[in-house]
Amino acid sequence: MAQHRAAASERSAGDLLLATGLFLTRSESTEDKRVVFKEGGREGDVFYRDRWSHDKVVRSTHGVNCTGSCSWNVYVKDGIITWETQATDYPSVGPDRPEYEPRGCPRGAAFSWYTYSPTRVRYPYGRGVLVEMYREAKARLGDPVAAWAEVTTDPQKRRRYQSARGKGGLVRIGWDEAVEIAAAAHVHTIGAYGPDRIAGFSPIPAMSQVSHGVGARFVNLLGGSMLSFYDWYADLPVASPQVFGDQTDVPESGDWWDAAYLVLWGSNVPVTRTPDAHWMAEARYRGQKVVTVAPDYNDAAKFADEWLAPHPGTDGALAMAMGHVILKEHFVDERTEAFDAYVRKYTDLPFLVELVERDGDLVPGKFLRRDALPGEEPHAEWKPVFIDARTGEARAPHGTLGHRWDEERPGNWNLDLEGAEPLLTCYEAGGETRAIALPRFDGDHEGSAYGGAADDSAADVPEVGRSLRGVPVRTVGGRLVTTVFDLLLAQYGVARPGLPGRWPSGYDDASEPCTPAWSESITSVKADRTIRIAREFAATARDSGGRAMIVLGAGTNQWFHGDTMYRAFLTLLLLTGCQGRNGGGWAHYVGQEKCRTQTGWAAYASAMDWTRPARFMAATPYWYLHTDQWRYDTYKADALTSATGPGRLAGAHTADLVAASARMGWMPSYPTFNRNPLLIAQEAREAGLPPADYVARELASGDLRFACEDPDAPENWPRVLTVWRANLFGSSAKGDEYFLKHLLGTQNSVQGEEAGPGDRPTGVVWHGQAPQGKLDLLLSLDFRMTSTTLLSDIVLPAATWYEKHDLSTTDMHPFVHAFSPAIDPPWQARTDFEAFQALARRFSELAEDHLGTATDLVAAPHQHDTPGELAQPGGTAPDWKAAGVPPVPGRTAPAILSVERDYPAVAAKMNALGPLAETKGLPVKGVSFTPDAEIGWLAQRNGTSTEAPARGRPLIDTDVKACEMILALSGTSNGRLASQGFERLAVRVGTDFDELIHGSAERRVVFADTQHGPTPVGASPEWSGKEAHDRRYSPFTINLEHDKPWHTLTGRMHFYMDHDWMHEFGEALPVYRPPLNMHRLFGEPEIGPTGEKAVAVRYLTPHSKWSIHSEYQDNLLMLTLSRGGPNIWMSPHDAEAIGAEDNDWVEAVNRNGVVAARLVVSHRMPRGTVYMYHAQERMVDVPKTETTGKRGGIHNSLTRLLVKPTHLIGGYAQFSYAFNYIGPTGNQRDEVTVVRKRTTEVQY
Amino acid sequence: MGERIGKVMAQVAMVMNLDKCIGCHTCSVTCKQAWTNRPGVEYVWFNNVETRPGQGYPRRHEDQERWQGGWKRTAAGRLKPRAGGRLKKLATIFANPKMPSIQDYYEPWTYDYEHLVSAPLGDDIPGARPRSLISGDPMQITWSANWDDDLAGGEELGSQDPIVQKIGDKVKFQYEQSFMFYLPRICEHCLNPSCVASCPSGAMYKRAEDGIVLVDQDKCRGWRMCVTGCPYKKVYFNHKTGKAEKCTLCYPRIEVGMPTVCSETCVGRLRYLGVVLYDVERVGKAAAVKEEQDLYEAQLDVFLDPDDPDVQAAARRDGIPERWLESAQRSPILMLAKRFRLALPLHPEYRTMPMVWYIPPLSPVVDALSETGHDGEDAGNLFAAVDTLRIPIEYLAELFTAGDPEPVKAVLNRLAAMRAYMRRINLGEPADESIAEAVGLAGTDIEQMYRLLALAKYDDRY
């Protein structure tokens, strides 16, 4: 009753009102008067309609670092860019699978903020004190080059502007003056020090090929060095050249769909491959199982059926244990036919390895080669052998490197076994066996490195050093041999009856590598889970025909020993026959740089149409030396070598090894010599000697030295550095503070000490005082203010991605598409293309009087995919200097090549396609294209030059024409060249390539196609996989389906690497190497609390959700969606240890630098590890630190370069150098830091 | 049906498949860029994405004890706005205490970016410090639209999630038990919108042709009762114009046949848009069913079957255009919500009859199961696994079914069944009809679900 009354009273008030209202407006209503229907009254809607209206929509994309290569629609209203949304019109990849639409992420969607943002660089700027001194000198001397020379060589003036770097004081200057200063610096440097003292840095060309290429072309025409980025970023997986003889050839994301089992290993796909992540989410619906391996519960773990969380950096142990299970269950206990057949044909497992004695042990040595057997064969030292089970005889099968470069007998470089049955194992009943010593490193952990139960219980720390295990042996050609397969079983601890040595008793034996229990003691991942996942992985691979895939990311790649981890991962894929299959194999997604239109871009960027070779430089050793980080290395090679190795590197400092790699022609090295190469060429001419002979003589006498043997001598410094499409000093510079201190000579917060006398190199000169301020000019082109622009001497205002023409490709999808300007570059911004044109033009003018034409001597390393990779048979380290013998250029030393530099003609050459394109051909991966018809087409399409020496040559004087050139000169976009290349390849290989030759000839993509929308490209010898409208790209499918060898020593995928240095470091076979022990190497505190309110932690820098790739940390939208400034993620346990709460300010300090950030406390973080997400700069909301009183650093202020010596190997088969193909990585994940709560108020 | 069909109306509705959401916030950014990157609405995100468990935006918006949004069922079975009826509103019009403050959203900011370019030569590298967009003063940043993204703040912040507080220790903030999922939110364009009912000026309305709920910018007087009335806190106050603004379901795009910005730019491909027909005369009753846990079914019952000839006749009677009728027949929303019963309403207990529905997240499932020693690949075990999900069913049930776990379990079982069923086909094995039957479906149903959820072609999503 009471209820009823209450309801009635409600009715009386509310309903009365409603009824009155309805009566007054006479609107129709529902019976319950809940809804009232009205007409009209929509005038207020007009606001949103106006807001939505726009004048045009222009298709473009974002052009740096990001591998998304997404097509975006940019909306323009009243000449103003308003916003962007993703294009959705990608060509279909098939009715039976999802599509690529829409591609794009929040970073991309926030890009247009930059167009009119307050951080936009609107005008050219110069460092005030420098400009002032330059103007004064120029007024007095009347010549820009003389003025530059004076300002940079007067010690006081030099100090004055160098020490002002990064401290504000940039002044607006005109384009003409900015370009003149930069041009004068280039001219002066070439004349005074040599062209190889000039460097350019611009990463990831695939995503804006012309913007990258135009600057690279300029630098290369001068004879400067373009610095690599892929290895420098630690994105390059060194295991890829080692195992495949190819760099990062991976499936497009659409091929994840084909996988029946997907492991995301150290790859947080939703964050780092946002537009591709849907393939994973969707493939689960067709029953794909997803396993995520990551130390934190990350965005990808959300999707995983299983989340495995090994301690950071121990992933290799987990993979080794999975390999143990697969080897035991599919190769020993039972034989899985498909796996067996695969490894015999496509891997080096059946090949023979000689066992040699070392320090009383028998150890694996070199591959047994054809030259060890009776009879003659060409290139026999490059032909490893196996035993043919049919005959019991050893033989060299087709397809080895010796066959590849046998020009006399083409057609034998293939995987056709001609009926032979490679013997996988020497094991036989009653057969001979031997115990061998194998390296192990698993005891080298930091004592208290990790929290968690597993560590606490791991009481028995295994001995560091070696395992003694048996292998079956045979005697072939008088030598004791076994197979790689037998070695692998021994390395993985998979026992067979009757073999000597120590073996694990079972999966649960934690005392011996590589059992699941052993892995558990290292990783904390439970043994039974490891076993189960290994079983599922292999069973799925077996049942699906190789459709098991491992997606790999920075979380595993960016460790010092990331290559050994990768080899353990690849082992799983190779053993189960997954590589070269759609839906299977490795999928490495870390900063990949796949220019699908490879040959066209390479021709343009390297200027190989005019001069060869270019001075492409491996950036890690470059920065290691030139930023003096080597002076802070306090350990010797012995700290990393194996107890089972030859021991020849004992006492060597890493800088010694870098220098040795340059001397032997393994790695490129620029500046090369301690004299101007133009001068050396002149001396050689005067001496009447061929340049190579002259250089050899001078080196042997010691009159000429490699610059890397004395990097701190002023004549060996880099002098001019141009950075564009990049933020070197705010992002990628590992050891950022060392850059500031030694390269730039300005304020820094390096905290550590230099190496003491006992820790210094012996073959590299040590100066008592390290130089501060090596670089004369830092020039940057950017559209926003970064650490790099703030530190630059000259800043040029660049057009954004929505203001120019260019091309974009990626490995993530099979399309090429265009940038198009939505608006003209506003204010005084210019495209990179226009800026470099202006620079080249002014340079050429100044060069008339100052440089003229000169001969340059280029020292070129032994080059992969050329006969140069046959330089050093047997994989030795022929250090002529150590041996006291003269160098042999091209064999034991780099080749010395003369290059004519017509400096006044640089601008003319930049703007026209040179004659070497067709006369010498365009090389790519051992094949050469002859683009004669294309040159004719380009001449008609683009017009021809009227300027000597380019008269009559096709013009490439606009960005669109350059795009057209790139598309015309690549087989992926020009089927005629693909067809031509496949035809030539078929001659060398000798198998049936008809499908490839004839499948592509009609394809032709021109720039207009790419502007209309993403346009599919096709198969080409530039890549190892097939692709077509009905075929997703997966690498090595050409190898598998056409018996084409891999570009390796055996022509197969390699488990075994017999180079001397691989033996030195115990990495001839896959092996588990723990994270570096920073306590032992550098005296950093051990992980754990370090006293009151401070904790030492593993310091990881994964890619951020709110910046990086197409976006940067300073974007207001991204900052608003995150936490507005730099932060460090920490576990609640560690936060408690330092008495800090969420959002408290903390300071992180180690020997490399100081970082100020706010804390993010989250239980998704493991104890003992912090994350400072990548590319957090020092510019936005960074206070002064308590430690230094100066502004805090960037995320890379706490890291530094640590060069892994095995990455320096060259001159030997797949280990030979190529740009961004092999080289030391700028790895940074082994680092530790101390974090403490800030105690004083923040000051800016 | 049998019942008389009342007035037939069409609603453009949305389904989001949370099982596919990668939490990337592209939807938020494209929406913001298109609609609210202007003064007065700096803090406004018509579309936002929340990490759950987490407090959301504005902070703890689900705490209706505090914010008093949505409808309340009276003892007599009638609905009234929780914050009080019109008379009460008129009485309190100048002082509305039940509204989130700017600090509950967040204080928008920018930085002194110009300083980077203009800094004179000094003794340190220039920096850009944060500055409030409200006051113009330097500020320290302590909250944002997405502060607890990816479990940031851990237990300290997560324990303030109203659902966590409700279900207690089912949610553990520990490393080993970590879980999260993402919840993108826009205006629900409710069938029974409490914001519209709250507006004293009559400025809010639900469009008759497509059900989009809008604020008439000319009529709005800035009373902000809608902000209180909306239990989802999806009506915002523009502090510059003094008027309310909200998600418009991108009507300028919808009207010309384009999907909303958030849908089309959803790179996880998880959003579906479609037309549903409903009987407007049944809404009031359905929204007022006694038990909160019956609201989900009640809401489904309001939807009309567009293949039913009686419905078609009634729709034509009520002026529904033929194309809309066709759209309703092809509607992915109807398929996902009603036919396959995969999508669930967000907080049906608010009784607003929301029109943005969600497929709850399945994963990770085998992980939990394998801990118990079972083979996760086995279809039979998959269903058992749903009970041991990392994400507690109770949490999802509090979001989508007023706490009833059964409908949530049923959805997750169907998703699991789809995986098991399709895995066999993927591996070249014969289809196993029993898997489909186990979740009350036929193999052909599973294949249709798969087409919609996995292939998810553009034309099928919108």
Automatic annotation (TrEMBL), chain A:
Sorted UniProt keywords: 4Fe-4S, Cell membrane, Electron transport, Iron, Iron-sulfur, Membrane, Metal-binding, Molybdenum, Nitrate assimilation, Oxidoreductase, Transport
Bilayer topology annotation: Peripheral membrane protein
Chain ranges of the 4Fe-4S Mo/W bis-MGD-type domain: 55-119
Organism: Glycomyces tritici
Cofactor requirements of the protein: Mo-bis(molybdopterin guanine dinucleotide); [4Fe-4S] cluster
E.C. number(s) listed in UniProt: 1.7.5.1
Name of this protein: nitrate reductase (quinone)
Record-stated family: Belongs to the prokaryotic molybdopterin-containing oxidoreductase family.
